[in-house]
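User: Let's play a game. I give you a shape written as tokens, and you guess the letters that built it. Ready? Here's round one.
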């Protein structure tokens, strides 16, 4: 245990502690928000909580193992990881393996366990993008958009396109943000990112209008759910989420006392768990959770600033965009600032594949935060190198 937790920087322990706090807090809120529907479906109040706890028991050791790995490991396996992620994503279209809910087809089911391959693809993209962009920087090619686009665009397009075919627009948005975040932190020219951003925005508008239920949700959101005809269709989840937040007041109804979780609020333990947090813990609890995520972002930034090489900076930056950006999107959806997209709150929402991959991403960041790189002055030669 001493070797596992051995580290030289305060950033490592602050990031590890913040992550573990969010995981424990998430388990408590999953137990509270899922107990009623869990009993209704399985006659067991603790069924969903036990499942989430199992994945936490898998994810935390995985995070600690990844925190011990060297950058050379990620360089060696980055291409294999993104290839495996694409192959897993293809399985969602395989008969008997891929499963779908009422909105998208982005799950596989094997031996009774469901898994969301796109979560693994996110993790693979974080590492792969960092490896590829760092190599381009070493070759002095980041200023040439052709050399940047050649490896990044085809691989990212395939990975994201497969998720888009499964109609999971929320996950697609997060994956696009990961790609743009990696390019930004790598130092790609802003005008190239701006042009790409305009193209992606146009594609997003086309995708939004191509699906009937998705366009209905967006239209209802633009109207502020003011049309009574939308109440039981596109606005049920949003309106009941707002009622839950409003019912919590300043200090909340108390842990476990939510009324929205009594089958009034769909996905109360998943996409809309923030509404239950606001109802049970009030405005104070909701704001404190926001501050924890802000602290998590600061941890990521501090780890980035201590790096001397591009590879860890890009990997940490992409992981930050993924985790913190997804948290902001989830909360914005619950507050009504964005239409319903179906993305979970990292570390807090129920969902085993999301929890394990989020923890794995933090493990990658912890591997860079463990020691503080030595900054060498230009022109100076390390004494050990001179003795070789």
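Assistant: Ready! My guess for every position:
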């Amino acid at each position: 245990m001493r070797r596992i937790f051995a580290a030289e920087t305060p950033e490592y322990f602050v990031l590890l502690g913040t992550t573990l706090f969010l995981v424990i807090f998430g388990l408590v809120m999953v137990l509270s928000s899922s107990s009623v529907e869990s009993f209704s479906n399985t006659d067991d109040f603790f069924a969903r909580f036990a499942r989430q706890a199992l994945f936490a028991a898998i994810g935390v050791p995985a995070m600690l193992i990844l925190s011990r790995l060297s950058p050379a490991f990620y360089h060696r396996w980055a291409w294999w990881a993104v290839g495996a992620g694409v192959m897993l994503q293809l399985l969602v279209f395989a008969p008997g393996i891929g499963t779908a809910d009422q909105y998208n087809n982005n799950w596989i089911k094997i031996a009774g366990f469901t898994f969301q391959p796109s979560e693994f693809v996110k993790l693979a993209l974080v590492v792969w993008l960092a490896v590829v962009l760092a190599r381009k920087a070493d070759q002095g090619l980041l200023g040439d958009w052709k050399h940047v686009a050649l490896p990044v665009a085809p691989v990212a397009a395939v990975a994201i396109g497969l998720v888009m075919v499964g109609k999971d627009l929320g996950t697609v948005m997060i994956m696009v943000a990961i790609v743009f975040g990696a390019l930004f932190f790598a130092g790609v020219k802003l005008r190239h990112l701006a042009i790409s951003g305009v193209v992606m925005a146009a594609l997003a508008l086309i995708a939004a209008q191509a699906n009937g239920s998705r366009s209905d949700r967006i239209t209802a959101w633009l109207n502020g759910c003011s049309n009574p005809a939308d109440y039981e269709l596109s606005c049920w989840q949003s309106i009941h989420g707002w009622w839950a937040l409003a019912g919590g007041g300043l200090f909340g109804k108390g842990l476990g006392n939510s009324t929205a979780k009594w089958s009034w609020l769909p996905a109360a333990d998943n996409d809309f768990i923030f509404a239950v947090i606001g109802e049970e813990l009030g405005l104070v609890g909701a704001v404190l959770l926001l501050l924890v995520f802000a602290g998590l972002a600061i941890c990521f930034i501090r780890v980035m600033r201590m790096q001397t090489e591009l590879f860890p900076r890009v990997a940490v930056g992409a992981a930050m965009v993924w985790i913190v950006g997804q948290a902001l999107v989830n909360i914005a959806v619950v507050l009504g600032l964005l239409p319903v997209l179906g993305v979970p709150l990292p570390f807090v929402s129920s969902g085993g594949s999301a929890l394990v991959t989020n923890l794995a991403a933090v493990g990658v960041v912890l591997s860079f935060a463990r020691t503080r790189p030595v900054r060498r002055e230009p022109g100076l030669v390390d004494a050990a190198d001179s003795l070789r």
